[in-house]
């Protein structure tokens, strides 16, 4: 009878330990999922920022080429005017 009682107590302890381990595993998974979502959001924000910076870079390059074309054109006009005089 005592042995049966001891076995039942051990079984209850094992069930409680198993439940604690299961709860800990669920909490760990939830924490990892939360971190993953946080990092995914950060990556998305960085991609948006990168796209914006790329678009700005393209605009700056276009503006630069437009300015250099204007300067070259003006220099050419000035050169032609000097040649004509």
In short:
The chain is mainly α. Helix content is 98%, strand content 0%.
Topology:
Layout lengths: L1 H83 L1
Task: Provide structural commentary.
There is one protein chain. The chain is rod-shaped. 98% of the residues lie in helices and 0% in strands. The longest helix is centred in the middle third of the chain and has 83 residues, at 2-84. It is mainly alpha-helical. The model has no long low-confidence stretch (mean pLDDT 85). The chain has one helix at 2-84. The protein has one helix and no strands.
What is the helix content? Answer: over 70%
Q: Would you report the number of β strands?
A: 0
The proportion of strand residues reads: under 5%
What is the molecular shape?
rod-shaped
Average pLDDT level: 85
Structural class: mainly alpha
The sequence of SSEs as H and E is H
Summed up, the helix count is 1
State Rg.
36 Å
Low-confidence stretches: none
Distance between the termini: 125 Å
Biggest sheet, open or closed, and with what strands and sense?
none
What key phrases describe this protein's structure?
mainly alpha; 1 helix
